[in-house]
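Predict fold of ABC transporter substrate-binding protein; 361 aa.
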Amino acid sequence: MRIKLAVTAAAALLISGCSVDSGGTGSSGNAAAGAASPAANCAIATAADPGNSQPADGTPVAENAPKLAQKDTYRVAFSQNANNGAWRIAETQSMQDEAKRLGYQIQVTDAQNNQSKQIQDIRSLIAQKPDALFVAPMTEEIGTVIGEAKSAGIPVFLIDRTVSNAQAKAGTDYVTTIVSDFVQEGKRAAYAMAKATGGTGKVIALEGTTGSSSAVDRKKGFEDALKQCPGLELVATQDADNQRARAQDITESLLQANPDVTAVYAQGDDMAMGAIAAIRAAGKVPGKDILVVSGDGSKEALQSIVDGAMVANVECNPRFGPKAFEVMKQYAAGDEVPTKILNEDRLFDASNAAEFVSQAY
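Predicted 3D structure, encoded as tokens:
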């Protein structure tokens, strides 16, 4: 009998940060000094952090994807969508470090934030016939090339983002996606913002790469939750492509157009740090005049919480290497691998950020 792969807290800890809630869950309080009293019509302003979502009941297992022989060592490939920014660099390093620790050969390509280049990168890697292929998709629209790997008999494991189900089928064209629940991340960010602001104010949002599953889902989670707070008005949303300089420029422009903005939601920490720089350039104090909520859990962001410039951060840790290779080995051993594996992430705020700064990427 094959053993079903369980996504346990112990396994999640292998990602070194995408782990079980640290105790910050439900205990964030008003992270910014002087936060307004909760608005009577905003239930989430006083609600506990909703925490991590759970895998859907009946998640199918990968039965029809290309098989992987069980061996002592492997030659693997990793298609990274962009090896720039602290998060992506940390993810690539984690994959390389874990491959080295296991004694595997790994080839890494960098698509430089260009979807066409990533498609060509993947085709080049397929031609070299690695034992397994890991892909961090730039957008959901690269599913067709994932199917080409299936045709070549190469098992594919998606990490941190997924692809369109219309183009590639989980469990058939690729084995699984190892990912955070981005909708839940956006929801948790909205709860943290409502708590910090008291459920009133004007908000601008900075989004990641247009068309990526992370950007699409975080937007949905944040905006759906914000509907429970009519006093929190989303006055502007713009794609900053996870780039710090771009986020700073956009935030400066949005603040000029909306001088009464009181909060910023940045889907990623590089964008958040750009926004904080823009707030300061506007002569305002981040964490006091304008509250910032972000996601990723970088060392710089957690230190910003400690320093009072950011009020909360929903973790999405980039250290995928240990978990990715663990799942690959379980698949090779014939274990049943679910077609979607959810990471567990923490909420950081003033109550716990200092504790985790040294562990962050």
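The first strand starts at residue 75 and ends at 80.
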